[in-house]
Structure formats: structure tokens, C-alpha cells
Amino acid sequence: MKLLLALLIAVTNVEAAVFSINGDKVEFQNSNFMISDLIKDYATTEKMNVVFDSDYRDGQVMTVGPRNIDKASFELYISTMLSQSGFGMRILPETRTLSVFNRRDVRYIITSSYSDLTKVPDTYEHIQFMYELKHIQSAELARNLRPFIGRYGRIIDHTNSILLSDTGKNVRRVMKIIQELDNPDYLKSAAEVKELNEKNKKIFEKKKGFIEILNNNNVIFLLLFSLVGAVIGFGIRGYAMKRIEGGW
Amino acid sequence: MRIFLVVLFLMANAFGAIKTEGESILPFQRKGYPLKELIKDYAEALKINVSYPEDLLSKDQSKVDLYIHEKTNFSHFSSLFKSLLDSRGYTLIQENGFQWIAHARDVRYLPSEFYANQKFPNDESYVTVLFRLKYPIAPDITRNLRPFLSRYGRVVNFPDGRSIVLHDKGDNVLKLIEAINFMDTEMVYKVALDKKPEESTPEENPLNEKVVELELKNKILEKKLTEQESGGPHEATSGIVNRRN
After folding, report:
1. Hey, is the C-beta of A216 within 8 angstroms of any chain B C-beta?
2. pTM of the predicted model, to two decimals?
3. Residue A71: burial class (beta carbons within 10 Å; 0-12, 13-18, 19+)
């Protein structure tokens, strides 16, 4: 009986692994599994510790189809599933720890920093990237690129540098746009547009009427009003003096 | 009893997974196809891993009526599947080795594939495209393009006046580029050069005239399409011709 119980405990204790590695393929055992189980299994395979944020909310993932992916794409798969559930992960190299955090708190977390685009991970891992522009001014570029930054991403301009904080995948996309734009032709075209705007501005200024200028400048209007008032006042005074005294 | 079971089995098989032959989907029809089941069958037929968070579709009980009358190759079936998902507010994102489904409304936060001078997919998948104009009239063009964007599409112009970045569904970006090429002319540029800001009225702006023309074209095409779908393509065409005349 004792033996049977022990066997039963042993059987119930053995958790089915989410995936198994077969050569260069990762094969999923079931079509649906919990993300936390996936992370734990991944950490075990990679011989890493795991830390989940206190507000981590577990979610279930469905994977249908052949249910096997290349080992090279596995990290991308994990970061995608986490990112979809609103979480991110980072690996602390010193302690070999995989930390799972809430993505909205990413600005308080120290993430990996890169300045070489080829080294930026092509995953949903949150990173920082610095880039020195060659031709364009960073301020105007940063303003126009904001619509392409992720939900918890940031873009900061500093003199002629751009600092991006976003997922590796999105940093790569935004950098592709920047690299396409950052060339001498951009400057040439921008100068042409500036000239055009200046020309239009001059036309606009020339067309302004005298009354419109007065309406827009209260000080000039007051001065002119006082001057006209003074002239009329002196005129009346002169006329009155002439009438009373018979001379100036 | 055995015959009854065999018939039951055959029936279940007939309504089962999508059948394939080589790189094509064999004709089939299914009324009230549950979306979740369709996703599973699509992934198995095309041998692609498709992932999605369980809570994304947990409340979605929507069903699809699918009638595939002819042998359809995988790429066409994939486009059809993407447009089905899109009509239900989802989008399929292609990654290296797997695909995943997300809410289309979240697509602005997701990195879509970037294309500068390359050919991009002509389907419902989202793409980011950098387009360069011949003349520096990007602000005018982006303003006039906004009505043609899809629900979650974006268009941004840069201060050089020639660069436009479009983020939208591939098939819509193609339409937008067609419209841009139509507006990016020397005549429009000359008008922009001589434009006096306080005098430009919407009626006088040649870009707006072009937009109205494009809108009209679009409406005619849409009408033609709906009429064709409801049958009688010849009648529909003649109707448009008469209206034009």
C-alpha cells in the first residue's frame, strides 16, 4: 500500500514538460500551455534561475500546426509570447538569472545597451540603442518618428544623437527608417523646402494691409491714436486762443 | 450499427481539416466554421506554427462560412485567411519560423516589416514603407492621403518634403502609392511654389481636385465590386457607363 502511494505521489509530481529538444528543433508536447511553465522549462534547459515579478499574471498560449520550431527562433518565440501578455524578460549574466517583469515598468529597469545595430537582438526584448546621426538634426527626426515607437518605447534626441528605448525588433525597424533618411539628399531637399517656405512667408507679409498691421499691434495703434488726439487738441486750443485773445 | 458508425465517421471526416494536394488547398465548403478551428486547420494544412494567447479568442465565438470552389494555392489561401482575420479585428504577424495572432488595434505598437525600395506583400499584413516623392510636396500629399488610410493606418512626412512613411496593410499601401504617384506631378509642385497661404481655398487647391477625382474613382470601383458580388456584372458595368454619360 505504502509503495502504491509513493508511486502515485511520484506520478502526480512529475509535470509534463512543455517542450523537448530534438536536434535543432524545439517540439511542443501540447498545443496549449502556461507561459510560466514555458519560461521555467526554458530556464531549466539553459541552466538559469528564474524570477517572476510579484504582479506577474500568468496566461495560456495556444500553438497550433506542426508545433515545432527551430532552436534559433526559440528565444524570439518566448519573447513574443511574453510581450503579447504584457511582460518582458531580461537575462542577468552575472547570476545567470532570467527575470520576468511587467512591460509598463520597463523605464525603471536597466536594460541592455547597444550602439552597434548588428548586435541588437531581433526579438521582443527591451533594449536601449544609441545612434549618432551623420546629416540630419536629431530633434526634427525624433519628433517625426514618435508614431513608430512602441507602447513602452522612448525616443530622445540630443544634439546630433538619437537614443532609442524599445524592443529589439522595433529598434531595428526605426533604425532602418533613420538610415534611409540620414543622407545628404535629405539636407538638400530640406533646404529647398525651407526656401519655398521663406518665399511664401514674404508673399504673406507683403499682402498684409495697414489696418491689419494696426489690429495686430496694439502699441502702434495707441501711439497713433495719441498722436492724432494731440494734433486735434492743439488745433482746438490754437483756435480757441485766437478767438479769445485775438492773436497767438 | 457498423454502417451507421462508418457513415458518421465519413461525415466527421468531410467536415474535418482542410485537405491539401501538394502546395494547394482542395475545394471545400463549410458553413459556420468556428474561427478557432479554422486557425488550427489553416496551421495544419500549411504546416505553419500559429500561436496566440488563449484569452485573445476565448470570448470570440465567431463563425465563418467558407466556400472554396477551386484548387487554391497556399499563398492565395494565406491571403484569404489574413483578410478573414482582419475582418474580425485580428492580424497575423509573420516571424521567423512561426506566425502569431494579435489584435489589429495593437498593430501600431508592433514592428511590421520595413520596405524602402523593395516589393512588399499585396495582402492584409501590415507593412512600413518609405516612399520618396519627385517633388517636395510631402505635407500636402500626406494631408490629402489621410482619408484613404485604413482604420489603423498611419502616414508621416518628414521635413525634407520628399520622404513619406506609410504604415498600413500591404494592399492599401499599394493603393496609396498609386494615389501619391498621381498627385506627385510638376504641375502640383508649381502651384505649391506660387501658393499664397491666405488665398488658397479648398476649391482652388488642385490637390483637392485630384483627391475628389480619386474618391469618385474609388466609389465607382467599390460599387462595381459590390454589384459584381451580388451578380450581373454586365448590368453593373453598363449602369456605371450610363451614370458617367
Report:
1. no
2. 0.74
3. middle
A65·B162 Cβ contact <8 A: no
Question: Crossing angle of helices B206-229/B170-183, nearest 10°?
Answer: 140
Helix (H, G, I), strand (E, B) or coil at A9: helix
The domains found in chain A, sorted by start residue, are 18-107 (3.55.50.30), 113-182 (3.30.1370.120)
Residue type, B76: H
Most B CBs within 10 Å, among A148, A165, A169, to test the B interface: A148
What CATH number should be reported for the domain whose range is B2-106? 3.55.50.30
Chain A residues lying within 8 Å of B53, measured CB to CB: 59-62, 81, 84-85
Using alpha carbons, list the distances in angstroms from residue A62 to A33, A234, B18, B123: 7, 93, 19, 25
Q: pLDDT, tens digit, for every residue of A179-214? A: 999 999 888 888 888 887 777 766 666 666 667 777
Cell matching residue B243: 451614370
ipTM of the complex: 0.72
Cα distances from A199 to residues A70, A213, B137, B192, B193, in angstroms, run 59, 20, 15, 11, 8
